[in-house]
# Entry
Amino acid sequence: MIPAGWSVVTLEAVGSTNDEAMARAEAGAPEGAVVRALRQEAGRGRRGRGWDSPPGNVYSSAILRPKVPPAEAAQLSFVAALAVADMAASLVATHRRVAIKWPNDVLVDDAKISGILLESAVGEGGLVGHVVIGVGINVASAPPGTRYGATHLAALGSTASTDTVFAAYIGALARRYGEWRTSGFAETRVEWLRRAAWLDRDIEVSLGETSLRGRFVDLDERGALLLQTADGGVRRITAGDVFPPRA
# Structure
C-alpha cells in the first residue's frame, strides 16, 4: 500500500528514474511523488557509474521537498539507507544480517543488495528546493563485479514480488523521512549506527588515488565517518568508498 500523501507513476521503461523525477520536480511535482520503472536503459549510480537495470528488480525515484540547507539535505542519504534496510529485514529470514555500509549501501550477509543515489536542486534563499532519492533494489538478479559481492532477495530465500518489495520500501521511506523531519538527524544517526557494517572493526577507505586504513569508531553529528588511524588520531571522512581491509 502506498503511504497517504504519496503517489506513484509506473513506466515500462525509462532512461533513468532520477532524470525523470528531477524533470518532474522542476516542473512542480509535489513532495511524495515517485517515479518507478520496470527497467532503466541508462541507470546511474554514485560518481557516474552505470547501474545495470534489467527487468525483475525495483527501480524508483522519490521527490522530497525538505526546504533545508544542502548539508542537512545530504542526511537523507542515511534516511534512505535505513528505509531499504527496514524493507530487507522484513523480507529475509531473521538469521540474515542486514547492515549498512557507509554511507548508504545496504548489505545482507555482507553482500550489496541495493544502490542509492541522491540528487538535488537549490531553490530560494539557498535552501534545497527538491531532493530526488533514487533507489535500485536487487530482487531477482544482482550485478557482478563488486569487491564485497552483490546479492538479491530471491537468492536469500525471499519470494516477495517486485510490487511487494516496492511497497515495503516506500512505506519505510515515508516513515523514516517523517521521523527525520520531526526529530532531526540525531535519531536517524542512532538508528543508522545500530545497522552500521564493520563498526569497531578495521576497514579500508578509498579516497580515489589514495586509501586509508583504520578502525571505524563512530559517525559524527553530520554523518561523517570517524576513522581511528594507526597513530591514534581520528580522521573525519566525508567522501569515499568503504571496504573491509584486503587480506
Remarks:
- The CA atoms of residues 87 and 169 lie 5 Å apart.
